[in-house]
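During the no-cost extension, the postdoctoral fellow (Dr. R.K.) reprocessed legacy sequence entries with the updated structure-token encoder. One reprocessed record is reproduced below for audit purposes.
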Amino acid sequence: MRANYLFTSESVAEGHPDKVCDRISDEIVDLVYREAAKTGVNPWGVRIACETLATTNRVVIAGEVRLPPSLMKKDKDGKDVINPSKFKAAARRAIKDIGYEQDGFHWKK
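Re-encoded structure tokens follow.
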């Protein structure tokens, strides 16, 4: 048996960016499945892998998705693209729900 080993752990407090980002990602996933249910899309046909990054006055939502048509829009060439307005609203809703209202990071901005 080894006498030495390395032990690591992470503990984050309320308001830590990881917790905020996790909450936003959860809201995005919930949005996609709510839209699927609302529009009758088979939930097994929906796919979402969502990562969120946040810093002062900026939230970046990244990932891979297969979305219900209600979350898409047509671009100027008639191609289906993601409609960002519902995703922005979901991120703002998550930030507001957790009560994050500071200069430099606020759900209204």
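The chain has two helices and six strands. The mean pLDDT is 82. The remaining legacy entries will be reprocessed before the final report is submitted.
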